[in-house]
Specification:
This protein folds into 2 domains: 48 residues; 251 residues, 2-enoyl-CoA Hydratase, Chain A, domain 1 (Alpha-Beta Complex). The radius of gyration is 22 Å and the shape is globular. It contains 14 helices and 8 strands. Strands 1, 2, 3, 4, 5, 6, 7 and 8 form an 8-stranded mixed sheet that branches. The chain is α/β, with parallel strands linked by helices.
């Protein structure tokens, strides 16, 4: 597993303990009690490191190559998944994967932004950067959910919408804005889970929902830390300062009422024990479904409208 900079001390300590244990099997130098003490020290070290992570270190966790992707969530929380393709206008965007599925006994439509897990799949998925047809594909599947009264689940994980010339020629900005308007009108419960990077319009174009959850070390922001530091300080080296200034971590966004729940991850991030986050995401969706399936259609749409109307805050100063 790839080591992150803040985990260097942990992995070095783990390797040392493994060597000691291996040597101890051949030559009993340490008692079982002394070995347990070493393990306890390792646990304390992990607790200390993982409890004092900076915003930039959490961004690094969010981008870890082994972090579970949308495909992994679909495979592990869904049964009877039937993938659907195309936007019925131009092409099939491989950065979006979606279709009909079941989560336990709940029938649903699930749509995820997919980055890929190796060089070949990342190129195939365009690193999770959507073209206009990707947004149209997501909207088409969402409307199917509305038509058949099935809840729709969005899994967000993108560094942003594709910024290339071809995407702009096909109306990238319009596609995002159109999705935001039309998703606000889908007459069935919408659930959003930010599982990795939720960056810029690429995330917002699929981020309209009645119940929004965010994994503990994910981020949700109008711009990446690198992009922010380049604009504000003309220096990408200040990305750590930008990550802190953007207030894009789950705790910040819960306070701003941008999201509704923080989904806990195992110590060190979801890639350390994906089974925990699969179960947590499943429970988040199923619990939300128990609440929102009782909403009349008019109340559901009004709740969604008011939810996004009240995001943000301002102060008034009398002159």
């Amino acid at each position: 597993m790839e080591e992150l900079p803040h985990e260097k001390q942990i992995y070095e300590y783990e390797r040392t303990i493994c060597q000691i244990k291996e040597q101890n099997t051949q030559n009993k130098l340490l008692s079982p009690e002394e070995i347990r003490k070493l393990d306890k020290k390792l646990d304390k070290l992990k607790a200390r490191v993982y409890s004092s992570l900076s915003p930039w270190e959490r961004v690094q966790i969010c981008r870890h190559p082994n972090r579970p992707k949308s495909v992994d969530y679909i495979q592990n929380i869904c049964t009877d998944f039937i993938e659907l393709f195309g936007d019925r206008t131009f092409a099939d965007d491989h950065a979006v994967i979606g279709g009909f599925a079941k989560i336990n006994e709940m029938k649903c439509v699930i749509i995820g932004q997919e980055k890929g897990c190796d060089t070949e799949s990342r190129l195939y998925r365009n690193f999770g950067m959507l073209h206009p047809e990707g947004f149209r594909k997501a909207l088409r599947l969402s409307k199917l959910g509305g038509k058949f009264q099935l809840p729709v689940i969005f899994l967000l994980d993108t560094p942003g919408a594709y910024p290339g010339l071809t995407a702009e020629e096909r109306g990238q900005g319009w596609a995002i804005a159109h999705n935001m308007r039309e998703l606000s009108r889908i007459p069935t419960p919408l659930f959003v889970v930010i599982i990795g990077e939720g960056c810029s319009g690429g995330a917002l174009g699929m981020g309209i929902g009645d119940h929004i959850g965010m994994l503990e070390h994910s981020y949700y922001s109008v711009i990446s830390p690198e992009g922010c530091s380049s604009i504000l300080w003309k220096d990408q080296a200040k990305k750590a300062e930008a990550a802190s200034a953007l207030k894009m971590q789950a705790e910040d966004l819960l306070g701003f009422e941008v999201i509704d729940a923080i989904i806990k991850e195992p110590p060190g991030g979801a890639h350390h024990d994906p089974s925990i986050v699969y179960e947590s995401v499943k429970q988040f969706v199923l619990e939300g479904w128990q609440v929102f399936k009782e909403y009349p259609q008019e109340l559901l749409l009004e709740h969604r409208y008011q939810k996004f109307r009240k995001i943000g805050c301002y102060t008034e100063n009398s002159i």
